[in-house]
Amino acid sequence: MSVSMRLSRGGSKKRPYYRIVVANSRAARDGKYLEQIGTYNPLLAKDDENRVKLIEDRARYWLGVGAQPSDRVARFLDAKGIQERAATNNPNKGEPGKKAKERAEDRAAKAAEAEEAAAAAAAAPEPEAEPEAVDAAPDAAEEPAVAVNESTPDSDAGDTAEGVEGQSSQDPAEG
User: InterPro entries annotated for this entry (predicted)?
Assistant: First the structure.
């Protein structure tokens, strides 16, 4: 029978509390265990002495018998000085995933295009303003004829300048 040292979860929802147990490796995570050798409360501060409690002599005994600690329990044992744990190296841990890399490349390409467009706009000569014509007659011919509204703000909108004051420009109603 292979024996492992691992965490067994207790506590309520969103309030975890773990027992550090020695159990048959085939047993359920929270199931039957051979011996409880400590506790772990992740809700406490990292520097709190009650966060991890271990019975060191029992941990040493089970390691001597051949119990295999899980990664988290191996960290606890290393922190207490019971068993040295080799540091792991995962060079890919800090790298972003495929989609994040694609998004970063797209952002970089858009930024490069924007810089090129800005550089092209700065390098291009500004269009020169056309000189104004000295002759008044050509300017008058180019401008469209604008209808002048001679009505004042107090007059009716339908009235025209030709109408006589006090008389409506509309035809009288028959009837």
Answer: Ribosomal_bS16, Ribosomal_bS16_dom_sf
